[in-house]
Amino acid sequence: KLFFTDYGNAAKVERCDMDGMNRTWIVDSKIEQPTALALDLINKYVYWLDIYLESVEVVDYQGRRRQTITKGRQIRHLCGLAVFENYLYTINSDSLSILQMNRYNGTDVQALARLDNAKEIRVYQKRTQAAVRSHACEVDPAGMPGGCSHICLLSSSYKARTCRCRTGFILGSDGRSCK
């Protein structure tokens, strides 16, 4: 799945398959300007910052069990969001520091380091990486990902795929080759 935020005409947090199909709103009320998103891949939670409502909130992948982690004026200065173990990590653009906070109640806020131009943060740790299994976009004997001549996108599961073409090309009737 792909998770993303939008704060155009109607602010929301959404999810869809990697090929863009099955687009679903998971948060579409009491949300104004969601600017950062982080996933808890193990427990299947979505965290986001709303800088207009000055809040950090969380829901499960279906948009249920919504909770506010923390609220306050300090939120408007945050950008980027990552989750690891019991903490959320974010960047305070005002003080240029990396912040750590308890992901269950927003307490235990600590500045960990100072960075000059950071706008985004990611946690890379072996436990946060999903196990790789065989999937529909693996390279075939002809060297094409998922049998697609240009781009292979996973679809509704790791067993399904959709072929797409680079800009300027159209997908052939076989659903795999680009012309």
From TrEMBL:
One of its GO terms (biological process) is canonical Wnt signaling pathway. InterPro entries: 6-blade_b-propeller_TolB-like, Cueball_EGF_LRP_Nidogen, LDLR_classB_rpt. GO terms for cellular component: plasma membrane. SMART domains: LY. LDL-receptor class B repeats lie at residues 1-43. It comes from the Eukaryota. GO terms for molecular function: Wnt receptor activity; Wnt-protein binding. PROSITE patterns: LDLRB. This is LRP1B protein.
